[in-house]
Amino acid sequence: MRTGLSTIQQTLTSEAASVLNHSIAEVGRQNHGQTTPLHVAATPLSFPSSFLRQACIRSHPNSSHPPQCRALELCFSVALERLPTAQNMAPGMESSISNALMAILKRAQAHQRRGYPEQQHQPLLAVSLSH
């Protein structure tokens, strides 16, 4: 893992770090070369108690898995399947973080530093998996 990423991960909430770590692990299982913002965006949908999944379910309250959730899962699935796989990755080797994802994380970290003084020590990128 890059030094920059480990530094950023220390500023994440436990939920956000969990989403990022889960995304990185999933990239390895899918044999993708890099963890991208798409991987991170798709991850919360896989957690049953995430706000994203709960929002999908609330959009159609009479169904435990409404068509909107299935459609969103399908969109993410198709987009992830279209990503190139890593050709030369050795088994057990960790994928890298895409430049786009690293830029997002660094931008969020910089934004937090420029924020309000009382928020300076708050965790970065809070991702709520439950409510």
Automatic annotation (TrEMBL):
Q: Which domain of life is it from?
A: Eukaryota
The UniProt keywords, alphabetically, are: Hydrolase, Repeat
- Establish whether keyword Transcription regulation is in the entry: no
UniProt keyword Hydrolase present: yes
Provide the GO MF annotations for this entry: hydrolase activity
**Which InterPro entries does its entry note?**
Clp_N_dom_sf, Clp_R_N, SL_signaling_regulator
Domain Clp R per the UniProt entry, residue ranges: 8-131
Region of interest: Disordered: 112-131
Which PANTHER family does this entry report, sorted A to Z? CHAPERONE PROTEIN CLPD, CHLOROPLASTIC, PROTEIN SUPPRESSOR OF MAX2 1
The name under which this protein is listed is: Double Clp-N motif-containing P-loop nucleoside triphosphate hydrolase superfamily protein
Tell me which species this is from: Forsythia ovata
Organism classification: Eukaryota, Viridiplantae, Streptophyta, Embryophyta, Tracheophyta
